[in-house]
Specification:
The protein is of the alpha+beta class. It folds into two domains: about 110 residues, Nuclear Transport Factor 2, Chain: A; about 130 residues, Nuclear Transport Factor 2, Chain: A (Roll). It has seven helices and 13 strands. The strands form two sheets. Strands 7, 8, 9, 10, 11, 12 and 13 form a seven-stranded mixed β-sheet that branches. Strand 5 and strand 6 form a beta hairpin. The chain is elongated. About 20% of the residues are buried. One of its GO terms (molecular function) is isomerase activity. InterPro entries: NTF2-like_dom_sf, SnoaL-like. Keywords: Isomerase.
Length: about 260
Amino acid sequence: MTHLPSIIKDFIKAANAHDSQAFIDTFAEDALVNDFARNFRGKEQIRNWSDKEMIAPKVTFEADKIIEHYGDFLITALTDGNYDKSKAPDPTYLDYFFTVKDDKIVKLIVIKNKEKSANQETILENNKQSVRQFLSCFSVGDVAGAVALFHDDATYWFPTLRETTEMPAFAEGLKWILSRLDGPIKFKIGQMVAENNKVTVQLECFARTVEGIPYNNLYHIYFEFEGAKVKLAREYNDTAHVFKTLRAGQGEPVRHR
């Protein structure tokens, strides 16, 4: 087991306590911090960096792996806090490279952990593929296959109903849509964005109702994943077009509870 120098332990403790003075006290006067290719030299620059990007957003630091290499220390840490996470993987793992001399940190390099980030990119792509699979199943009338991509206790919000439905009602809603179509529904997928556990997709559909009315709607659907399956989804579309086509002569929407 790798034993960390006490000064690095003090660094972690101060970071997690959001203690600005204790944090800066772990560095040598002429220390260097390189944070994602940005250099901060000396305590004044390091304090400006840490107060703004570590202390104020209450960044936390949980060591996941520790390696000693010729007197230097690499800590892969789960990093969290109140910062902009829109472009950060979830969870975020960073590599911290420490050089210690005379019981002070003289150099700290912070970079993204590529292995953990690669795993996150795989998860994002898998989530996007699940959305594509959902649309593919629905387009060929495979309601069971579409619903199987959701957790049993997941919810789906339909704009025409203006309410959240649970999975049994969601399945009935999909079946009703298919019953109103004369043949399969085709989807043209536009922009799809995946961040953290969320996926949004813009798409256009092409179909005909049983009365022969063209059904050509635009959708924006938001998905939240929990693990490998969808936990929550919200659909937005041109509801006026729905009432002119799918619901033409159908009266008020039927709520499948």
